[in-house]
Amino acid sequence: MSAASRGPGASVDAEAVADGGERVLSEPAAGDAPARPGELVLASERWRLGVLPDLGGCWSFGRIRVGERWVDLLRPTPAGALGNPEQTASFPLIPWSNRIRHGVLDWAGERHQLVRNGADGTAIHGAVRQLPWRVVGHEPHRLELALSSYDAVGVNWPWRFAARQVLSLVGDALEVQLSVTNEDSVTFPAGLGHHPYFQRALFDDDAVLQVDAHAGYELDAGIALGAAGPLPARADFREPRTLGPDFVDDVLTDLGPTVARWHYPDAGIEVSVVADDVYSHLVVYLPVGKDHFAVEPVSHTNDGIALHGRGVPGTGVRVLEPGETLTGTFTLVAAEQRAGR
User: Which pLDDT tens digit goes with each residue over 180-229?
Assistant: First the structure.
């Protein structure tokens, strides 16, 4: 990354940068900065996390303490974009993750046409990131949010469901518990995940990424074509390597419990993603020319519902009976890098 002019702890407002335009640099706000309209802030010794309950339970920022400074680990949401989930730091993916080809959902002998809200003509990123969530509980280190699709209008999903998001700050960790419950009278397919955007660099040096994934998918315009197979070379981060300039947008599987870790060499910080078995897949997204990247814990592969319907194994799609709940937990840990790593 070319960031020689960036001072320690400075961050880039990526949304204020047009492609090919000049980067706009700004210092991260103080750790105890007041919340902005609609924003709730969780705080611990290591973390500051902003959450927007009325905007899909999206996260507006995620800062960590590095020495005596607070630095944006997650891509911060600009003040003028607090109503746009596409520009947030992260958003929940419920009741499905990633893409559904053409927005067509075939299930139990019926065809449902979802709104094709992706620029590529797919239905993308679930149905909750623009819905208001209720605050069920709020403490300085913990926030619990809930919603029911029954209470909303225009939900992009043909069956009734409920969702919960519980965020907890404990020591160096941000623990994220997501759940989806079938509130309908028939079974339906479901999944969940989260879409955090991380800064490529905290100071000047790009992150060095390692991903404990041993299989991936052949993709056509982001859609998985069949069962998982060999890991694509472009997305093979089993040995640590710098993010680099190449484009990557892959869904991976056959994961270890610490699905990914990376460190920022000049900040002395290591970040790890630990996920339970519900999160059997991981999306790694490295856009070209941007100051952020994504490591997304998800329960199933792209267009997994269609593959599941064709009998393809290992998609990660769950079939929920009426009243049944799918719950998954992952944890982001940000800590000083251990010696020797």
Answer: 999 999 999 999 999 999 999 999 999 999 999 999 999 999 999 999 99
284's CB contacts (< 8 A; 6+ apart) are: 211, 235, 237, 248, 249, 250, 252, 260, 293, 294, 295, 296
Domain ranges (residues) in the chain? 11-336
Residue 3 pLDDT more than 60? no
Burial of 104 (C-beta count, 10 Å sphere; 0-12/13-18/19+): middle
* pTM for this entry: 0.90
Using an 8 Å Cβ cutoff, are 47 and 63 in contact?
yes
Tell me the two tokens of residue 47.
Answer: 């973390």
CATH code of the domain made up of 11-336: 2.70.98.10
Torsion of CA 224, 230, 235, 241, to 10 degrees: 170
- Paired strand residues for 274: 258, 331
**DSSP sequence for 54-105:** TTTTEEEEEEEEETTEEEESBPPPPGGGTT-GGGSSB-EE-S--SEEGGGEE
Cα–Cα distance measured from residue 25 to residue 195, given in angstroms and rounded to the nearest whole number: 24
Closest C-alpha among 229, 227, 226, 255 to residue 328: 255
